[in-house]
Amino acid sequence: QVQLKDSGGGLVQAGGSLRLSCAASGRTFSRNDMGWFRQAPGKEREFVASINWRGGTTDYADSVKGRFTISRDNSRNSVYLQMISLKPEDTAVYYCAASGKPFDAMGRDKLGVDYWGKGTLVTVSS
Questions:
Q1: Residue 57 and residue 33 in contact, taking contact as beta carbons nearer than 8 Å
Q2: Direct distance between the N- and C-terminal alpha carbons of the chain, in angstroms, rounded to an integer
Q3: 103 pLDDT band (50/70/90 cuts)?
């Protein structure tokens, strides 16, 4: 059974930092794009960041560019999201995501995601 286990969320003050982790099991994702989406209360799930299978190409939503950094460790079948300078508007449930097709770009659309984590809540207080 394929699982993406996301973790690392919590409560932090504005300006603070958090590091999210996502550990995959059940299959290898070393040849698959991975990324993060988020969903704030009452809003649609939106793209945050993605990283290609080699880790050499990353993409970020404009709202997080310069503050968030995505990385991966294929030896651990894991992807990470380092978040700094957090703002109250970053408050959301963050979901790890992965493409199911090797070497296929996941893109920014939820339709490009084949696997989801259960989510980890990030709350940023003002």
A1: no
A2: 40
A3: confident
Residue type present at position 84: I
Dist. CA 4–CA 44, nearest whole Å: 21
| DSSP, res 89 | G
Using DSSP, state whether 111 is helix, strand or coil. Answer: helix
% of the chain beyond a pLDDT of 70? 100
Q: What are the phi and psi torsion angles at 78 (to 5°)?
A: -135, 155
**Per DSSP, which regions of 8-119 are E strands?**
10-13, 18-25, 34-39, 46-51, 58-60, 68-73, 78-83, 92-98, 115-116
User: What is the structure's pLDDT at 104?
Assistant: 84
d(CA 54, CA 47): 20
Q: Which amino acid is at 104?
A: D
